Amino acid sequence: MAVDNKVVEQVAHLARVQISAESVPDYASDMSGVLELAAQMDQVDTSSVEPMAHPTHAVQRLRDDVVDEVNQRDAFQAIAPSVENGYYLVPPVIE
Amino acid sequence: MQWETVIGLEIHAQLATRSKIFSASSTQYGAEPNTQASAVDLGMPGVLPVLNREAVHMAIKFALATDAEIGRHNVFARKNYFYPDLPKGYQISQMSLPIVGTGTVTVELDDGEIKEVGLTRAHLEEDAGKSVHEEFHDATGVDLNRAGTPLLEIVSEPDMRSAKEAVAYARKIHSLVRYIEICDGNMQEGSFRCDANVSIRPAGQEELGTRSEIKNVNSFRFLERAINFEVDRQIDILEGGGEVVQETRLYDADKDETRSMRSKEEANDYRYFPDPDLLPVHIEEELIESLRSAMPELPDARRKRFIADFDLSEYDAGVMTADRRTADYFETVLDKSGASAKLACSWISGELFSRLNKDSLELGDSPVDAERFSALVARIHDNTISGKIGKDILDKMWSGNDDVDAIIDKEGLRQISDTSEIEKMIDDVIAANPDQLAQYRSGKDKLLAYFVGQVMKASRGKANPGQLNKLLQEKLKE
Any idea what DSSP says for residue B80? Predict the structure, then answer.
């Protein structure tokens, strides 16, 4: 499956990644290469293999439902670009 | 043309854990902005999510309550999108391997009809933060206290055929999650939120029409109105020769209308993939069995038992099992007071509930707990006091700490059932009212009530009403 310039631009937009117009064809070619590799792997018969979500065979350890975080708002907000009345401020979001 | 409405619901139930799903921050509602937002909730670099065991247990309890499959091997995935109240740039959710699979919910409609609604799945995910648009000039404020709060998203099959059915289903889920104590169900605080997928198709057609998704519905009444508005809107479009666009629409309760929020085709490319920060969750049979054995009796089973064992009416049994606290309270009163189910039920649904309503209290905050209330009902049951005096005593118990027996003794309220004592009071009243006696004896039967009132007054409300009536009628005839 080939990735064209339009797909590159769409993926860049979804990921909010800024790329220059002249680099788009290179990305298209690189990404097409990756998909070709995946297509090659698709040829292998994996019908007897369970799909895995993680490369190790470990399972998730669980945490007790206990609150032990303390309020560190001042420390976090000291490194935020803009805060007011305890809120983090961001450019206005128009609904 | 005849149109058929097709509705599926997505319900977000906030799980009643103390801490968040992936961090040890508090989930308490109403704190100062960002005081319950830790490094994990803020998506700081280098942090790792650690799954809350209780959230997993609560999801399994929901599966057990709806006879649903349990995802013995379930996986968290990242749902990628950008919004200021989602600091990581993705929401941790579940996609192809959710913790709860297909199940069934039995819903009773208003007309008594029973309807089975299929559950597609239910999955665990984290909530986002909250954006505040109004309070700041040329900026949006972000409060991340809610970010990371555990949610169970419950997805139904498109099995509902009217707004009423959708509401009945939503109410059923609401009652169920409260019953098994996995969600407080508070809709004002956003603990229980409904999104409705609505489409229409010509009656008889198999294929589904294009749907719109209605968000922002925070009451059952609005859910019904929003769906009805949306159905009318889609009928108008299709009958006018247009096409329904697949999109998300917001319900505006003030205007009673839905309006377009964003077009879904563009927005829903979430690029899900398994979250490498979280390992697959394995659920052992042992855990399921231990949770199963600790499950409370579910509302439907309890209602049937109340009808069969206690001879309650269908209606009374419904009221007494509407939530678990009420049912527990009722059973305690029944057990401790020795009274009939009918008496216990009428005192709870009447006197207790009206006082709770008046003071805007939940049963859990009642100033008179089930033990004290049982003692009161016991005294009415054994005829120590009349119902009328019982109500006065309940008022005193409501505002003070005295128990029923202490109040009876202190105020001398014990019901008078001593025949000779009541007879003496009757004699005195008759002697004091010779004119009324003559009128009564000449056929004015209505005056009986007057004599009853006079004797009751003389006894300060304490005469046993049954005895009083019987003795008085005998005396008046003499």
Answer: E
Given a contact cutoff of 8 angstroms between Cβ atoms, the answer to whether B464 and B422 are in contact is yes
Who's near A12: CB < 8 A, 6+ residues apart? Answer: A18, A19, A27
**CB–CB of A85 and B135 under 8 A?**
yes
Residue of chain A whose Cα is closest to the Cα of B279: A60
Query: Would an 8 Å CB–CB cutoff place B280 in contact with chain A?
Result: yes
- Token pair listed for B359: 């003071």
Mind telling me how many Å the CA of A65 is from chain B's nearest CA? 6
The DSSP letter of residue B39 is T
Q: Which fold has domain B419-477?
A: Arc Repressor Mutant, subunit A (1.10.10)
Helix (H, G, I), strand (E, B) or coil at B380: helix
B97, two tokens = 């391997």
Q: Where are the domains of chain B?
A: 3-287, 297-411, 419-477
**Which residues of chain B have a CB within 8 Å of the CB of A72?**
38-39
Q: Which helix (H) or strand (E) holds A35?
A: helix A24-42
pTM of the model: 0.82
Using the Cβ of A82 and the Cβ atoms of chain B, whether some distance falls under 8 Å is answered with yes
User: A4 at the B interface (CB within 8 A)?
Assistant: no
Distance from CA of B375 to the nearest CA of A (A): 38
Closest CA to B235 of B4, B463, B459: B4
Residue A79: both structure tokens together: 């490194």
| pLDDT per residue as tens digits for the range A4-54 | 999 999 999 888 899 999 999 999 999 999 999 999 999 999 999 887 777
